[in-house]
From TrEMBL:
Signal sequence annotation: none
GO terms of molecular function: polygalacturonase activity
Keywords: Cell wall, Glycosidase, Hydrolase, Secreted
Protein known as: Polygalacturonase
Keyword Thylakoid: no
Taxonomic source organism: Carya illinoinensis (Pecan)
Pfam families referenced in this protein's UniProt entry, alphabetically: Glyco_hydro_28
Protein backbone atom coordinates (compact mmCIF):
# COMPACT_ATOMS: atom_id res chain seq x y z
CA UNK A 1 0.00 0.00 0.00
CA UNK A 2 2.73 2.39 0.97
CA UNK A 3 4.64 1.55 -2.19
CA UNK A 4 1.53 2.23 -4.20
CA UNK A 5 1.08 5.66 -2.58
CA UNK A 6 4.74 6.46 -3.05
CA UNK A 7 4.62 5.53 -6.70
CA UNK A 8 1.55 7.70 -7.19
CA UNK A 9 3.35 10.57 -5.47
CA UNK A 10 6.41 10.08 -7.66
CA UNK A 11 4.22 9.93 -10.69
CA UNK A 12 2.47 13.11 -9.69
CA UNK A 13 5.64 14.98 -8.90
CA UNK A 14 6.97 14.20 -12.38
CA UNK A 15 3.87 15.31 -14.22
CA UNK A 16 2.96 18.14 -11.87
CA UNK A 17 5.43 20.64 -13.36
CA UNK A 18 4.02 19.77 -16.75
CA UNK A 19 0.43 20.29 -15.58
CA UNK A 20 1.53 23.49 -13.95
CA UNK A 21 3.03 24.86 -17.13
CA UNK A 22 -0.13 23.90 -19.02
CA UNK A 23 -2.24 25.69 -16.43
CA UNK A 24 -0.03 28.76 -16.62
CA UNK A 25 -0.02 28.69 -20.40
CA UNK A 26 -3.80 28.58 -20.37
CA UNK A 27 -3.93 31.66 -18.18
CA UNK A 28 -1.69 33.80 -20.35
CA UNK A 29 -3.87 35.76 -22.73
CA UNK A 30 -4.35 39.08 -24.47
CA UNK A 31 -7.42 39.86 -22.41
CA UNK A 32 -7.02 43.00 -20.38
CA UNK A 33 -4.54 44.47 -22.84
CA UNK A 34 -7.28 46.63 -24.32
CA UNK A 35 -10.32 47.57 -22.23
CA UNK A 36 -13.50 45.92 -23.55
CA UNK A 37 -15.92 48.73 -22.84
CA UNK A 38 -19.53 47.93 -22.15
CA UNK A 39 -21.86 50.00 -24.33
CA UNK A 40 -25.02 51.25 -22.73
CA UNK A 41 -26.25 52.75 -25.93
CA UNK A 42 -27.35 50.15 -28.49
CA UNK A 43 -28.69 50.61 -31.98
CA UNK A 44 -29.52 48.09 -34.69
CA UNK A 45 -28.73 48.33 -38.37
CA UNK A 46 -32.46 47.75 -38.97
CA UNK A 47 -33.18 51.12 -37.25
CA UNK A 48 -31.42 52.70 -40.23
CA UNK A 49 -33.28 50.77 -42.89
CA UNK A 50 -30.94 47.79 -43.01
CA UNK A 51 -32.42 44.72 -44.71
CA UNK A 52 -30.76 41.34 -44.30
CA UNK A 53 -32.16 39.63 -47.39
CA UNK A 54 -28.81 39.21 -49.13
CA UNK A 55 -29.91 41.42 -52.04
CA UNK A 56 -30.72 44.88 -50.72
CA UNK A 57 -27.69 47.17 -50.70
CA UNK A 58 -27.19 48.47 -47.15
CA UNK A 59 -24.34 50.91 -47.68
CA UNK A 60 -26.50 53.89 -46.73
CA UNK A 61 -27.75 52.15 -43.58
CA UNK A 62 -24.21 51.35 -42.39
CA UNK A 63 -22.92 54.84 -43.14
CA UNK A 64 -25.89 56.51 -41.44
CA UNK A 65 -25.69 54.30 -38.36
CA UNK A 66 -22.01 55.06 -37.97
CA UNK A 67 -22.60 58.77 -38.66
CA UNK A 68 -25.08 58.70 -35.79
CA UNK A 69 -22.52 57.02 -33.49
CA UNK A 70 -19.90 59.59 -34.43
CA UNK A 71 -22.02 62.73 -34.17
CA UNK A 72 -24.49 61.93 -31.39
CA UNK A 73 -21.79 60.66 -29.09
CA UNK A 74 -23.12 58.79 -26.05
CA UNK A 75 -21.15 58.23 -22.87
CA UNK A 76 -19.34 54.91 -23.08
CA UNK A 77 -19.91 54.64 -26.80
CA UNK A 78 -22.46 52.76 -28.86
CA UNK A 79 -23.01 49.18 -29.97
CA UNK A 80 -24.20 48.66 -33.53
CA UNK A 81 -26.12 45.38 -33.62
CA UNK A 82 -26.29 43.31 -36.79
CA UNK A 83 -29.14 40.79 -36.44
CA UNK A 84 -29.19 37.39 -38.18
CA UNK A 85 -29.45 37.85 -41.94
CA UNK A 86 -27.21 38.68 -44.86
CA UNK A 87 -26.46 42.38 -45.17
CA UNK A 88 -24.99 43.26 -48.54
CA UNK A 89 -23.09 46.55 -48.46
CA UNK A 90 -20.38 48.69 -49.99
CA UNK A 91 -17.34 49.64 -47.92
CA UNK A 92 -17.85 51.68 -44.78
CA UNK A 93 -15.71 53.38 -42.13
CA UNK A 94 -15.78 52.72 -38.42
CA UNK A 95 -15.57 55.49 -35.84
CA UNK A 96 -14.24 55.70 -32.26
CA UNK A 97 -16.12 54.38 -29.23
CA UNK A 98 -18.13 51.79 -31.11
CA UNK A 99 -18.73 48.06 -31.06
CA UNK A 100 -19.76 46.38 -34.28
CA UNK A 101 -21.67 43.34 -32.99
CA UNK A 102 -22.57 40.49 -35.31
CA UNK A 103 -25.28 38.17 -33.99
CA UNK A 104 -25.12 34.45 -34.63
CA UNK A 105 -25.88 33.95 -38.34
CA UNK A 106 -25.36 37.62 -39.14
CA UNK A 107 -23.33 38.15 -42.32
CA UNK A 108 -21.94 41.46 -43.52
CA UNK A 109 -21.27 40.83 -47.17
CA UNK A 110 -19.25 43.02 -49.52
CA UNK A 111 -20.86 44.10 -52.76
CA UNK A 112 -19.11 42.93 -55.90
CA UNK A 113 -19.69 46.30 -57.54
CA UNK A 114 -15.99 46.97 -58.02
CA UNK A 115 -16.67 49.91 -60.37
CA UNK A 116 -17.88 52.12 -57.54
CA UNK A 117 -15.33 50.98 -54.99
CA UNK A 118 -13.73 54.15 -53.48
CA UNK A 119 -10.01 54.82 -53.84
CA UNK A 120 -7.75 56.20 -51.13
CA UNK A 121 -4.17 57.41 -51.00
CA UNK A 122 -1.37 54.85 -50.70
CA UNK A 123 0.19 54.25 -47.30
CA UNK A 124 3.29 56.44 -46.89
CA UNK A 125 5.42 53.44 -45.86
CA UNK A 126 4.60 51.76 -49.17
CA UNK A 127 4.66 54.82 -51.45
CA UNK A 128 2.10 53.23 -53.77
CA UNK A 129 -0.43 50.44 -53.66
CA UNK A 130 1.07 47.11 -52.66
CA UNK A 131 0.32 45.51 -56.01
CA UNK A 132 -0.41 48.35 -58.43
CA UNK A 133 1.05 51.86 -58.68
CA UNK A 134 -1.00 54.82 -57.47
CA UNK A 135 -3.77 54.76 -54.87
CA UNK A 136 -5.55 51.71 -53.58
CA UNK A 137 -9.11 50.57 -53.11
CA UNK A 138 -10.35 51.36 -49.61
CA UNK A 139 -10.73 48.36 -47.32
CA UNK A 140 -14.20 46.85 -47.05
CA UNK A 141 -14.31 47.84 -43.37
CA UNK A 142 -11.95 50.75 -42.88
CA UNK A 143 -10.94 52.93 -39.94
CA UNK A 144 -8.44 55.77 -39.81
CA UNK A 145 -7.41 57.57 -36.63
CA UNK A 146 -9.88 55.84 -34.31
CA UNK A 147 -9.63 54.41 -30.81
CA UNK A 148 -11.79 52.21 -28.59
CA UNK A 149 -13.30 50.07 -31.36
CA UNK A 150 -14.52 46.51 -30.98
CA UNK A 151 -15.63 44.11 -33.69
CA UNK A 152 -17.22 41.11 -32.01
CA UNK A 153 -20.40 39.10 -31.50
CA UNK A 154 -21.50 35.48 -31.74
CA UNK A 155 -19.25 34.28 -34.54
CA UNK A 156 -21.09 36.18 -37.26
CA UNK A 157 -19.35 36.48 -40.62
CA UNK A 158 -17.67 39.27 -42.55
CA UNK A 159 -17.60 38.04 -46.14
CA UNK A 160 -15.47 39.88 -48.71
CA UNK A 161 -16.82 37.96 -51.75
CA UNK A 162 -13.26 38.23 -53.01
CA UNK A 163 -13.49 35.94 -56.04
CA UNK A 164 -14.27 38.83 -58.39
CA UNK A 165 -11.08 40.58 -57.19
CA UNK A 166 -9.00 37.38 -57.35
CA UNK A 167 -10.10 36.95 -60.95
CA UNK A 168 -9.11 40.52 -61.81
CA UNK A 169 -5.69 39.77 -60.33
CA UNK A 170 -5.43 36.51 -62.28
CA UNK A 171 -6.51 38.17 -65.52
CA UNK A 172 -4.24 41.17 -64.88
CA UNK A 173 -7.15 43.59 -65.21
CA UNK A 174 -6.73 45.15 -61.76
CA UNK A 175 -6.37 48.91 -61.98
CA UNK A 176 -5.38 49.51 -58.38
CA UNK A 177 -4.40 47.46 -55.34
CA UNK A 178 -7.19 45.24 -54.04
CA UNK A 179 -9.05 46.15 -50.82
CA UNK A 180 -8.23 44.52 -47.49
CA UNK A 181 -11.20 43.03 -45.68
CA UNK A 182 -10.58 45.06 -42.49
CA UNK A 183 -7.98 47.78 -42.05
CA UNK A 184 -7.17 50.03 -39.11
CA UNK A 185 -4.80 52.92 -39.84
CA UNK A 186 -3.30 55.14 -37.11
CA UNK A 187 -5.58 53.65 -34.48
CA UNK A 188 -5.33 52.29 -30.96
CA UNK A 189 -7.25 50.19 -28.46
CA UNK A 190 -8.84 47.86 -30.97
CA UNK A 191 -10.38 44.44 -30.25
CA UNK A 192 -11.43 41.96 -32.90
CA UNK A 193 -12.90 38.76 -31.45
CA UNK A 194 -15.40 35.98 -32.14
CA UNK A 195 -15.92 36.82 -35.80
CA UNK A 196 -15.48 34.70 -38.93
CA UNK A 197 -13.74 36.32 -41.91
CA UNK A 198 -14.30 34.82 -45.32
CA UNK A 199 -13.02 35.35 -48.84
CA UNK A 200 -11.14 38.59 -48.41
CA UNK A 201 -10.28 40.33 -51.70
CA UNK A 202 -6.69 40.80 -50.42
CA UNK A 203 -5.18 40.73 -46.89
CA UNK A 204 -7.79 39.94 -44.23
CA UNK A 205 -6.94 42.00 -41.15
CA UNK A 206 -4.41 44.81 -41.55
CA UNK A 207 -3.57 47.01 -38.55
CA UNK A 208 -1.09 49.63 -39.80
CA UNK A 209 0.49 52.41 -37.68
CA UNK A 210 -1.55 51.08 -34.74
CA UNK A 211 -0.93 50.21 -31.12
CA UNK A 212 -2.78 48.05 -28.62
CA UNK A 213 -4.60 45.71 -30.94
CA UNK A 214 -6.09 42.40 -29.81
CA UNK A 215 -7.29 39.74 -32.25
CA UNK A 216 -8.66 36.55 -30.66
CA UNK A 217 -11.15 33.78 -31.29
CA UNK A 218 -11.33 34.57 -34.96
CA UNK A 219 -11.63 32.20 -37.89
CA UNK A 220 -10.23 33.36 -41.21
CA UNK A 221 -11.02 31.35 -44.33
CA UNK A 222 -10.18 31.71 -47.99
CA UNK A 223 -9.40 29.05 -50.63
CA UNK A 224 -5.75 27.91 -50.85
CA UNK A 225 -5.52 29.27 -54.40
CA UNK A 226 -6.87 32.74 -53.55
CA UNK A 227 -4.05 35.23 -54.24
CA UNK A 228 -2.54 37.30 -51.38
CA UNK A 229 -5.24 36.54 -48.86
CA UNK A 230 -2.91 36.89 -45.84
CA UNK A 231 -4.65 36.28 -42.52
CA UNK A 232 -3.41 38.95 -40.10
CA UNK A 233 -0.64 41.41 -41.02
CA UNK A 234 0.45 43.72 -38.17
CA UNK A 235 2.30 46.47 -40.04
CA UNK A 236 4.36 49.26 -38.42
CA UNK A 237 2.34 48.53 -35.29
CA UNK A 238 3.11 47.79 -31.67
CA UNK A 239 1.52 45.92 -28.79
CA UNK A 240 -0.43 43.59 -31.01
CA UNK A 241 -1.70 40.37 -29.45
CA UNK A 242 -3.15 37.61 -31.60
CA UNK A 243 -4.37 34.34 -30.06
CA UNK A 244 -6.70 31.36 -30.12
CA UNK A 245 -7.58 31.59 -33.78
CA UNK A 246 -7.78 29.40 -36.85
CA UNK A 247 -6.61 30.66 -40.24
CA UNK A 248 -6.69 28.84 -43.55
CA UNK A 249 -6.03 31.06 -46.55
CA UNK A 250 -4.08 31.34 -49.81
CA UNK A 251 -1.13 33.24 -48.35
CA UNK A 252 0.73 33.82 -45.06
CA UNK A 253 -1.35 33.12 -41.97
CA UNK A 254 0.23 35.84 -39.82
CA UNK A 255 2.90 38.14 -41.23
CA UNK A 256 4.58 40.98 -39.34
CA UNK A 257 5.57 43.86 -41.61
CA UNK A 258 6.81 47.48 -41.53
CA UNK A 259 6.81 49.08 -44.96
CA UNK A 260 8.54 48.68 -48.26
CA UNK A 261 12.02 49.70 -49.44
CA UNK A 262 12.77 53.46 -49.71
CA UNK A 263 9.24 54.37 -48.59
CA UNK A 264 9.36 52.18 -45.50
CA UNK A 265 12.88 53.34 -44.68
CA UNK A 266 11.80 56.97 -45.05
CA UNK A 267 8.68 56.52 -42.93
CA UNK A 268 10.75 54.63 -40.36
CA UNK A 269 8.05 53.09 -38.23
CA UNK A 270 8.88 49.71 -36.73
CA UNK A 271 6.64 46.88 -35.59
CA UNK A 272 7.40 45.71 -32.05
CA UNK A 273 5.92 43.83 -29.12
CA UNK A 274 3.89 41.43 -31.20
CA UNK A 275 2.56 38.26 -29.55
CA UNK A 276 1.05 35.40 -31.50
CA UNK A 277 -0.10 32.35 -29.56
CA UNK A 278 -2.28 29.26 -29.74
CA UNK A 279 -2.93 29.52 -33.44
CA UNK A 280 -3.70 26.81 -35.95
CA UNK A 281 -4.06 26.79 -39.68
CA UNK A 282 -2.94 25.80 -43.12
CA UNK A 283 -1.66 27.57 -46.23
CA UNK A 284 0.42 26.95 -49.36
CA UNK A 285 2.62 29.84 -48.16
CA UNK A 286 3.88 30.58 -44.64
CA UNK A 287 2.50 29.92 -41.18
CA UNK A 288 4.30 32.35 -38.91
CA UNK A 289 6.07 34.94 -40.99
CA UNK A 290 8.05 38.15 -40.65
CA UNK A 291 8.38 40.19 -43.84
CA UNK A 292 9.16 40.53 -46.51
CA UNK A 293 8.25 44.22 -46.07
CA UNK A 294 10.36 45.10 -43.02
CA UNK A 295 11.92 48.43 -43.95
CA UNK A 296 10.82 50.21 -40.77
CA UNK A 297 12.21 47.34 -38.66
CA UNK A 298 10.58 44.47 -36.80
CA UNK A 299 11.53 43.49 -33.26
CA UNK A 300 10.28 41.72 -30.17
CA UNK A 301 8.02 39.19 -31.78
CA UNK A 302 6.98 36.12 -29.81
CA UNK A 303 5.03 33.31 -31.46
CA UNK A 304 4.22 30.21 -29.42
CA UNK A 305 1.98 27.16 -29.41
CA UNK A 306 1.35 27.08 -33.13
CA UNK A 307 -0.18 24.12 -35.02
CA UNK A 308 0.31 24.01 -38.75
CA UNK A 309 -1.01 21.57 -41.30
CA UNK A 310 -0.38 21.32 -45.02
CA UNK A 311 2.03 24.22 -45.36
CA UNK A 312 4.40 25.77 -47.83
CA UNK A 313 6.80 27.01 -45.12
CA UNK A 314 6.13 26.58 -41.42
CA UNK A 315 8.23 29.44 -40.04
CA UNK A 316 9.42 32.10 -42.48
CA UNK A 317 11.55 35.19 -41.93
CA UNK A 318 11.99 37.03 -45.21
CA UNK A 319 13.59 40.23 -46.39
CA UNK A 320 15.52 41.53 -49.38
CA UNK A 321 18.26 43.83 -50.63
CA UNK A 322 16.88 47.39 -50.73
CA UNK A 323 14.65 46.77 -47.72
CA UNK A 324 17.06 48.20 -45.15
CA UNK A 325 15.54 48.08 -41.67
CA UNK A 326 16.13 45.26 -39.24
CA UNK A 327 14.61 42.04 -37.99
CA UNK A 328 15.72 41.24 -34.45
CA UNK A 329 14.65 39.60 -31.24
CA UNK A 330 12.23 37.14 -32.80
CA UNK A 331 11.27 34.01 -30.83
CA UNK A 332 9.17 31.19 -32.19
CA UNK A 333 8.53 28.24 -29.90
CA UNK A 334 6.35 25.19 -29.47
CA UNK A 335 5.36 24.61 -33.06
CA UNK A 336 3.90 21.40 -34.43
CA UNK A 337 3.70 21.03 -38.18
CA UNK A 338 2.44 18.23 -40.34
CA UNK A 339 3.03 18.17 -44.10
CA UNK A 340 5.22 21.09 -45.11
CA UNK A 341 7.47 21.77 -48.05
CA UNK A 342 9.92 23.56 -45.75
CA UNK A 343 10.01 23.61 -41.98
CA UNK A 344 12.01 26.78 -41.44
CA UNK A 345 13.16 29.42 -43.91
CA UNK A 346 15.13 32.59 -43.15
CA UNK A 347 16.14 34.35 -46.34
CA UNK A 348 17.44 37.67 -47.62
CA UNK A 349 16.27 37.31 -51.21
CA UNK A 350 12.50 37.19 -50.93
CA UNK A 351 9.89 39.64 -52.20
CA UNK A 352 9.74 42.25 -54.91
CA UNK A 353 10.35 46.02 -55.00
CA UNK A 354 7.93 48.96 -55.32
CA UNK A 355 9.99 50.41 -58.18
CA UNK A 356 13.55 50.53 -59.40
CA UNK A 357 14.45 53.48 -57.18
CA UNK A 358 15.24 51.16 -54.25
CA UNK A 359 18.74 51.50 -52.86
CA UNK A 360 20.74 48.31 -53.49
CA UNK A 361 23.02 49.30 -50.59
CA UNK A 362 20.12 49.38 -48.13
CA UNK A 363 20.82 45.98 -46.60
CA UNK A 364 18.58 44.60 -43.85
CA UNK A 365 20.13 43.55 -40.55
CA UNK A 366 18.84 40.20 -39.30
CA UNK A 367 20.00 39.37 -35.82
CA UNK A 368 18.71 37.31 -32.92
CA UNK A 369 16.19 34.76 -34.09
CA UNK A 370 15.44 31.93 -31.68
CA UNK A 371 13.43 28.97 -32.83
CA UNK A 372 12.85 26.21 -30.31
CA UNK A 373 10.66 23.22 -29.52
CA UNK A 374 9.55 22.45 -33.04
CA UNK A 375 8.19 19.08 -34.07
CA UNK A 376 7.39 18.39 -37.69
CA UNK A 377 6.33 15.34 -39.63
CA UNK A 378 6.23 14.89 -43.40
CA UNK A 379 8.52 17.87 -43.87
CA UNK A 380 10.17 17.85 -47.29
CA UNK A 381 13.09 20.13 -46.43
CA UNK A 382 14.01 20.90 -42.83
CA UNK A 383 15.50 24.34 -43.23
CA UNK A 384 16.91 26.93 -45.56
CA UNK A 385 18.83 29.88 -44.14
CA UNK A 386 20.23 32.24 -46.72
CA UNK A 387 21.78 35.44 -45.36
CA UNK A 388 23.27 38.27 -47.41
CA UNK A 389 26.96 38.20 -48.22
CA UNK A 390 27.40 41.82 -47.13
CA UNK A 391 25.02 41.52 -44.22
CA UNK A 392 25.22 38.01 -42.79
CA UNK A 393 22.44 36.94 -40.47
CA UNK A 394 23.72 36.53 -36.91
CA UNK A 395 22.48 35.03 -33.69
CA UNK A 396 20.31 32.45 -35.39
CA UNK A 397 19.62 30.02 -32.56
CA UNK A 398 17.90 26.70 -33.01
CA UNK A 399 17.10 24.27 -30.24
CA UNK A 400 15.06 21.15 -29.68
CA UNK A 401 13.89 20.84 -33.26
CA UNK A 402 12.82 17.58 -34.84
CA UNK A 403 11.75 17.59 -38.44
CA UNK A 404 10.96 14.25 -39.97
CA UNK A 405 10.47 13.46 -43.61
CA UNK A 406 7.83 11.16 -44.95
CA UNK A 407 9.44 7.80 -45.61
CA UNK A 408 7.13 6.82 -48.42
CA UNK A 409 6.47 10.02 -50.26
CA UNK A 410 9.91 11.57 -49.98
CA UNK A 411 12.78 9.15 -50.16
CA UNK A 412 15.48 11.44 -48.75
CA UNK A 413 15.36 12.62 -45.18
CA UNK A 414 14.96 16.39 -44.88
CA UNK A 415 18.14 18.41 -44.63
CA UNK A 416 19.41 21.94 -44.06
CA UNK A 417 20.96 24.44 -46.44
CA UNK A 418 22.69 27.57 -45.14
CA UNK A 419 24.85 30.44 -46.30
CA UNK A 420 26.01 33.75 -44.81
CA UNK A 421 24.66 32.96 -41.39
CA UNK A 422 26.05 32.40 -37.92
CA UNK A 423 24.49 31.12 -34.75
CA UNK A 424 24.18 27.94 -32.81
CA UNK A 425 22.07 24.90 -32.44
CA UNK A 426 21.28 22.37 -29.78
CA UNK A 427 19.39 19.12 -30.24
CA UNK A 428 18.36 19.75 -33.81
CA UNK A 429 17.47 16.86 -36.06
CA UNK A 430 18.28 16.43 -38.85
CA UNK A 431 21.75 17.75 -38.07
CA UNK A 432 21.79 21.42 -39.19
CA UNK A 433 24.38 22.98 -41.47
CA UNK A 434 27.95 23.48 -40.22
CA UNK A 435 27.40 27.26 -39.75
CA UNK A 436 25.01 26.43 -36.92
CA UNK A 437 26.12 23.04 -35.84
CA UNK A 438 28.31 24.03 -32.90
CA UNK A 439 27.67 26.24 -29.92
CA UNK A 440 30.61 28.60 -29.63
CA UNK A 441 30.83 30.24 -26.22
CA UNK A 442 31.32 33.58 -27.99
CA UNK A 443 28.10 33.17 -29.86
CA UNK A 444 25.47 35.70 -28.94
CA UNK A 445 22.79 33.06 -28.62
CA UNK A 446 24.40 30.18 -26.79
CA UNK A 447 23.24 31.63 -23.48
CA UNK A 448 19.54 31.20 -24.05
CA UNK A 449 19.56 27.82 -25.74
C1 LIG B 1 -13.71 56.81 -45.10
O1 LIG B 1 -12.39 57.13 -44.73
C2 LIG B 1 -11.57 57.51 -45.83
C3 LIG B 1 -10.14 57.65 -45.39
O2 LIG B 1 -9.97 57.72 -44.04
C4 LIG B 1 -12.11 58.77 -46.44
O3 LIG B 1 -11.32 59.15 -47.55
C5 LIG B 1 -13.54 58.52 -46.89
O4 LIG B 1 -14.12 59.72 -47.38
C6 LIG B 1 -14.40 57.99 -45.76
N1 LIG B 1 -15.67 57.57 -46.32
C7 LIG B 1 -16.82 57.89 -45.78
C8 LIG B 1 -18.04 57.37 -46.47
O5 LIG B 1 -16.93 58.58 -44.79
C1 LIG C 1 -17.51 30.98 -31.39
O1 LIG C 1 -16.85 29.83 -31.94
C2 LIG C 1 -15.93 29.21 -31.07
C3 LIG C 1 -15.28 28.08 -31.79
O2 LIG C 1 -14.84 28.45 -33.03
C4 LIG C 1 -16.61 28.75 -29.82
O3 LIG C 1 -15.66 28.21 -28.93
C5 LIG C 1 -17.32 29.91 -29.15
O4 LIG C 1 -18.05 29.44 -28.05
C6 LIG C 1 -18.26 30.61 -30.11
N1 LIG C 1 -18.78 31.80 -29.49
C7 LIG C 1 -20.05 32.15 -29.54
C8 LIG C 1 -20.40 33.38 -28.79
O5 LIG C 1 -20.87 31.53 -30.17
Amino acid sequence: MLRFVVSILICFSTIAPFLNSVAIAALISCSGMVPMNYRNDKISITDFGGVGDGRTLNTKAFREAIYRIQHLRRRGGTLLYIPPGVYLTGSFNLTSHMTLYLAKDAVIKATQDTWNWPLIAPLPSYGRGRERPGGRYISFIHADGVHDVVITGENGTIDGQGDIWWNMWRQRTLQFTRPNLVEFVNSKNIIISSVIFRNSPFWNIHPVYCSNVVVRYVTILAPPDSPNTDGIDPDSSSHVCIEDSYISTGDDLVSVKSGWDEYGIGYGRRSFDITIRRMAGSSPFSGISVGSETSGGVEKVLAEHINLYNMGVGIHVKTNIGRGGFIRDITVSDVYMEIAQKGIKIAGDVGDHPDDRFNPNALPVVKGITIKNVWGVKVQQAGLIRGLRNSPFTGICLSNINLLGAPLRWSRSPSWKCSDVSGASHQVSPWPCSELSSSHPTNSCSSHL
